[in-house]
Amino acid sequence: LADPGQEVASSRVTVQVGALQHRSAQVTAQQGGIHLVQFVLHEAVPAGSQILTVNVDGRVSGGFTLPVRAN
Questions:
Q1: 50 near 17, Cβ under 8 Å?
Q2: Whole-structure pTM value
Q3: 3-state SS string over the chain?
Q4: CB contact burial 25-54 (16+ within 10 A = b; e otherwise)
Q5: Which of 70, 71, 45 lies closest to 15, judged by CA?
Q6: What is the Cβ-side half-sphere exposure of residue 15, based on CA atoms within 13 angstroms?
Q7: Which residues contact 60 (CB under 8 A, 6 or more apart)?
Q8: 71: Cβ–Cβ under 8 A, 6 or more apart, which residues?
Q9: Phi, psi of 67 (to 5 degrees)
Q10: CB-based contacts of 43, cutoff 8 Å, min separation 6
């Protein structure tokens, strides 16, 4: 979603898990033009398979299945 090698401020990135939006805590550029996005999953996200998408400056990724277990 971001240009390869470009630094991406965490304030530009949000993560949607199920119906809840999360702020990214940290975004780190990796080799090969990928970015590692770290975030804290909100406790209100229900257990089970949830769809996760990443948004950078309005560009949204395809969905990934994130298994969430009960706390």
A1: yes
A2: 0.89
A3: CCCCCCCCCHHHEEEEECCEEEECCEEEECCCCCEEEECCCCCCCCCEEEEEEEEECCEECCCEEEEECCC
A4: eebeeeeeeebebebebeeebeeeebebeb
A5: 45
A6: 22
A7: 1, 53, 54
A8: 43
A9: -75, 130
A10: 71
- Tokens linked to 49: 């398979």
- What is the rounded distance in angstroms from the CA atom of residue 26 to the CA atom of residue 19? 21
The owner of tokens 């909100």 is 42
pLDDT tens digits for range 14-66: 999 999 999 999 999 888 888 999 999 999 999 999 999 999 999 999 999 99
